[in-house]
## 1
Amino acid sequence: MPIRRLAAAHPQTVDTVFRKLLRKPGFTWSEHGEALLRRRKPRYYEQEPRPGVSVMGKRLSKLARGAQRQKFTRTRRVPSQPDHTAGADIGLQ
């Protein structure tokens, strides 16, 4: 969540900024920040947060890369075997 990242990036000033924004002189991010976010952003807390990055092993990584390559490559057409029965129904043999 951007607000949480911003607060973590500026721990020296986060309390002062939120005190002025919220007009609450006793506000501290460490004590009240979580409750503020839960109250103002309830949908964010409805689900378990998902990781932004997943660690994959070598085999799965190769499979994932292979699948991506196949999406963008053209498939060669294999010539079909001649059908010797074609035209037999009209007397051409």
## 2
Amino acid sequence: MTRTDAKGTILIADFDIGDVDIERAIVEGAGFELLAARCKSEDEAIERARTSTAS
């Protein structure tokens, strides 16, 4: 279930699993947007978070 009226965005900044399909289903089912990134540094995670909320 994917909702288009997202309440906000959740960023997974680093993960070592193949995909985030289960997490995406839970997060989007609750009305949020999920962005998954494999950030290599704290600065990269901060930048990704900033650009994901710059609407």
## 3
Amino acid sequence: MRRHLRLMRIFIGATVSAQLEYRANFVGAVLASLGEAGVALLGISLLFSQPGAQGSVAGPTVKPCW
């Protein structure tokens, strides 16, 4: 397991150092990633927000038969 973690650390370090060679590309990639995360969170919030709901995800209500 340590061998795999060490190998992953080496690969991530190589990727980050390659991205840092061109700082403008790195900054652009970071901003694009943050933008994508923001859009995803906005979509999720729109999906789960319902007018009139009190902060909960409410589905259709079923009235009891009695």
